[in-house]
Amino acid sequence: MANFDKHLPGTFCWPELSTSNWQQGKDFYIQLFDWGFDDQPIGEGIFYTMLQQDGLDIGAMYQMEAGQQESGMPSHWLNYIAVDNIDLMTEKAKNLNAEIICGPMSVGDAGKMSLMVEPGGAMFALWQGNEHPGARKLQEPGTMCWNELATRNAEISKTFYCDLFDWQVQEQDMQGMPYSLFFIKEQESPVAGMLTMTEEWPEEIPPHWMVYFAVTNCDEYIKKAKSLGANICVEATDVPGVGRFSVITDPQGAVFSIIQGETP
């Protein structure tokens, strides 16, 4: 798989973990995925840690602010989507009824970002890369390979993303459950998926974007995650034609998924 120097607009380009315990969180992930890391100081005793594979940045993590923890915000992964013009896209998202949390704002010479909550309630970020395009590797074991929206109002969310990014939608049946695939014109492969949160989902789980990391053996990674203190939300599950996946909660409470694809 090629290394990325640029990401197509409208595609997911960066996963970022905000965690209640930076040191413990870092220890968990570098042991689970054998990631390298580069701790970049952003304050007194505070770091923005670049998570790496083969010396290339594939994601990041940082210590959540005390005020956010006190307000009850859980540890969480944030999904970034690449754009060419973040000022224009942030204004467009606002006009489409997204709540802009912050931005557009410059992140040094790395690029510019905006953080927002879409009308369906899921949080995500936009990224206009400059010196840093985002993840240098994708779709390889140990890297981000899929992003999936869980929403309680599929029509509202679908309309928002299609209007914002010009995504096209393909509906399909996923083991008896309706599932939407999002595409952009430049790619034959889908850029993301969407499912509807049914009444079976606990009310305390908000709409969200789930990040998936590719693995070579789902069951072995589940065992490893458990041994490192993680909880398994969804045990290893086979999806015909797709692969074997699991949903995991890390020791600090952030949720992510792993998947062993049927094909490379």
Query: Which percent range describes the beta-strand content?
Result: over 45%
User: Compute the gyration radius: what is it?
Assistant: 17 Å
- CATH class descriptor name of the largest domain: Alpha Beta
Which segments are poorly predicted (pLDDT under 50) over 5 or more consecutive residues? none
Can you say what the CATH homologous superfamily of the largest domain is? 2,3-Dihydroxybiphenyl 1,2-Dioxygenase, domain 1
Give the integer mean of the pLDDT values. Answer: 92
Order of helical and strand elements = EHEEEHEHEEEEHEEEEHEEE
What is the general shape? Answer: globular
Number of helices: 5
Give the total of domains: 2
Alpha carbon gap, first and last residue? 10 Å
Please report the total strand number as a whole number: 16
What's the CATH architecture of the largest domain?
Roll
Percent of residues in helices comes to 10-25%
Strand order of the largest sheet: 2-3-4-1-5-8-7-6
CATH domain fold name of the largest domain: 2,3-Dihydroxybiphenyl 1,2-Dioxygenase, domain 1
Report the sheet with the most strands, covering strand number, pairing sense and barrel closure: 8 strands, mixed
Q: What structural category arises from helix and sheet content?
A: alpha+beta
